[in-house]
């Protein structure tokens, strides 16, 4: 049938009901037959496209009343079916408004608080609750403490159904993001340690970890290490007896078998001797060694952890070095302080998370005291490397440079546990580091010679043009994007592609994600490339300025906008960083004659130039390339050797 957009929707529904001899047209509504099957309203009717299949259904108010009655019925099967249908319908804003007006959210909350629902029934209840709350009609601040405790209880259970765990975590996340008061309540119920248990299944699972999960693990790692910042920036107070007692404890554990002399002068002399053996710079008052930040008191915390939890290792390191010749002893105190500073730099303690970074280390999620255990592994490495280098006090900085390289190389291999880290470090001995340095230096020297640099400069424009054409070809193929609404769900799609002559951008809405290219005929809107003024990304995008800071972070790094005449904009949120964000921002910049500056372009440029240069240099294998071209010979004294024809 043909819908007259000028007629009220109620009149159209009445005509359909009359055609089917149905009375009470106000009890019916139109819904999409495919996709999310949303209700048609006066506000959304303009989005109906030619050929769209609609179906007549009971009105949202009537559906809400029926489902509310059914989910409170005594029959378990009837209640399960009702909750299943409710979970699906709750995504519809029109239905959600009606259901919420009937106190539906309160009913669902009471079902959860009762603790009588399990399995599928509970999963559908939590799904419906989350979908309804995501519409933003009801404030999260109205959620009761008993409901929070019940949801937290599902998360804290060691063995819980995956679907229930996912929905419980999603609800808690929404509470934290949308309510400052609920943030503190949730924090009281859920600890990081309880969440780490669930993360183990993700980190140690066989399935590859997706980019979003990797980023969240990285953020958690950064925030966990940032808890150390306070101690790292706290200077030791030499007059604080409690802090001085920690140093006394380090001495006592190391030299426990020796009796302190009775005289004050003799005791002071022995303390000075012991503090020297412990490797402190200030033998008289070692507290002064901890007055520099970073690492501040964090270094002392690490040393005490080693002395108490790994006592045999601590005593062995101290006594082993105290028995060496003075010039070859490894000063434990000085090394521990400098090592703590180095580890803080490597792991960027105190730095804010990088929005585009996924660089997390699985091993830090395998131990409750991962930082301290990491220090204990590294201090043993330092002691071992000191011996291998036969270092003296003058070599201290050289040893620390080698140890930094050993640690960074081992971390780059992403060991999954501290035991694996130890294995990687064993393979990175001082001799191995020297071998790697030599190999890299030779390779670098080859590529830094003037002829090679000149060849690279000649090749680069060709490669950049190749990358540019690839980006424009991808824009001509087009990409599908999700429409970003005010809620977490993103049901609608739209497609954008560049015309084959590179002069027009075509775009339009879709009912669902396409499987291939979308014909230009289906894309009803267009922007001439000549009208595009600029391309902006991240926080400069108009659709990012409107979002709250907390919700913005998830999509900020994948957002970009086209600004075009007259004062219009087309906003994008790419589904992933490299496949679409970099491709599209590069392609649009190429269209406007601007430099392609994405990470993907730099990576592609390095890869392609390297491959091209290796191919061109194959014929010169084992031939030494001179630093300068051969000299041009002098002109001959006469040109009598020329021959004149004719």
Automatic annotation (TrEMBL):
Stretches assigned to the ELMO domain: 242-411
One of the record's GO molecular function terms: SH3 domain binding
A Pfam family assignment: ELMO_ARM
Protein known as: Engulfment and cell motility 2
Lineage: Eukaryota, Metazoa, Chordata, Craniata, Vertebrata
InterPro entries: ARM-like, ARM-type_fold, ELMO_ARM, ELMO_dom, ELMO_domain-containing, PH-like_dom_sf, PH_domain
SUPFAM superfamilies tied to this protein: ARM repeat (SSF48371), PH domain-like (SSF50729)
Purpose: Involved in cytoskeletal rearrangements required for phagocytosis of apoptotic cells and cell motility. Acts in association with DOCK1 and CRK. Was initially proposed to be required in complex with DOCK1 to activate Rac Rho small GTPases. May enhance the guanine nucleotide exchange factor (GEF) activity of DOCK1.
Gene Ontology BP term (one): actin filament organization
Biological source species: Hucho hucho
Signal peptide: none
PROSITE patterns per the UniProt record, alphabetical: ELMO
UniProt KW keywords: Apoptosis, Phagocytosis, SH3-binding
Domain of life according to the entry: Eukaryota
CDD domains (alphabetical): PH_ELMO1_CED-12 (cd13359)
């Amino acid at each position: 049938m043909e819908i007259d957009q000028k007629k009220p929707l109620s009149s159209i529904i009445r005509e359909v009901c009359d055609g089917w001899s149905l009375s009470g047209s106000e009890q019916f509504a139109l819904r999409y037959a495919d996709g999310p099957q949303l209700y048609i309203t006066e506000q959304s009717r303009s989005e109906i496209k030619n050929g769209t299949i609609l179906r007549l259904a009971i009105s949202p108010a009537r559906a809400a009343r029926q489902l509310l009655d059914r989910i409170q019925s005594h029959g378990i099967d009837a209640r399960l079916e009702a909750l299943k249908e409710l979970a699906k319908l709750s995504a519809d804003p029109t239905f959600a408004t009606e259901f919420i007006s009937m106190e539906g959210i309160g009913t669902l909350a009471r079902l959860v608080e009762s603790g009588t629902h399990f399995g599928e029934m509970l999963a559908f209840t939590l799904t419906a609750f989350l979908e309804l709350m995501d519409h933003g009609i009801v404030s999260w601040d109205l959620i009761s403490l008993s409901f929070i405790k019940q949801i937290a209880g599902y998360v804290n259970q060691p063995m819980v159904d995956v679907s229930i765990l996912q929905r419980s975590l999603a609800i808690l996340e929404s509470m934290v993001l949308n309510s400052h008061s609920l943030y503190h309540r949730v924090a009281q119920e859920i600890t990081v340690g309880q969440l780490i248990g669930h993360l183990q299944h993700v980190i140690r699972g066989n399935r590859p970890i997706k980019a979003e999960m990797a980023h969240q693990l990285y953020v958690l790692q950064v925030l966990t290490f940032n808890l150390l910042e306070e101690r790292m920036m706290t200077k030791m107070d030499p007059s604080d007896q409690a802090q001085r007692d920690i140093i006394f404890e380090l001495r006592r554990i190391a030299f426990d078998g020796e009796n302190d002399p009775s005289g004050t002068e003799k005791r002071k002399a022995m303390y000075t001797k012991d503090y020297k053996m412990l490797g402190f710079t200030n033998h008289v008052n070692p507290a002064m060694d901890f007055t520099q930040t970073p690492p501040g008191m964090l270094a002392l915390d690490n040393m005490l952890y080693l002395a108490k939890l790994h006592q045999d290792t601590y005593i062995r390191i101290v006594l082993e070095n105290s028995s060496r010749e003075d010039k070859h002893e490894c000063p434990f105190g000085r090394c521990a302080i400098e090592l703590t500073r180095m580890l803080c730099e490597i792991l960027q303690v105190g730095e804010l998370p990088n929005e585009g970074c996924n660089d997390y280390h699985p091993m830090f999620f395998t131990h409750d005291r991962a930082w301290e255990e990491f220090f204990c592994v590294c201090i043993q490495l330092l002691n071992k490397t000191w011996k291998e280098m036969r270092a003296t006090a003058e070599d201290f900085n050289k040893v620390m440079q080698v140890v930094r390289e050993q640690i960074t190389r081992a971390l780059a291999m992403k060991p999954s546990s501290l035991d694996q880290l130890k294995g990687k470090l064993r393979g990175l001995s001082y001799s191995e580091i020297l071998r790697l340095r030599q190999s890299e230096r030779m390779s670098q020297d080859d590529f830094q010679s003037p002829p090679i640099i000149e060849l690279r400069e000649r090749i680069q424009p060709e490669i950049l043009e190749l990358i540019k054409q690839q980006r424009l070809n991808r824009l001509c193929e087009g990409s599908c994007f999700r429409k970003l609404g005010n809620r977490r769900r993103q049901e609608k799609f739209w497609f954008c592609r560049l015309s084959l002559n590179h002069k027009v951008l075509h775009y339009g809405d879709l009912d669902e994600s396409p499987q291939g290219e979308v014909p230009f005929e289906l894309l009803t809107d267009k922007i001439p490339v000549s009208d595009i003024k600029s391309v902006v990304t991240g926080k400069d995008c108009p659709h990012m300025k409107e979002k709250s800071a907390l919700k913005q972070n998830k999509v900020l790094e994948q957002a970009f906008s086209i600004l075009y005449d007259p004062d219009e904009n087309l906003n994008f949120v790419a589904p992933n960083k490299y496949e679409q964000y970099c491709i599209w921002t590069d392609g649009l910049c190429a269209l406007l004659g601007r430099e392609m500056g994405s990470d993907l372009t730099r990576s592609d440029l390095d890869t392609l130039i390297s491959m091209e240069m290796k191919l061109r240099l194959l014929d010169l294998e084992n031939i030494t390339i001179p630093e300068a071209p051969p000299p041009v010979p002098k002109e001959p004294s006469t040109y009598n050797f020329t021959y004149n024809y004719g």
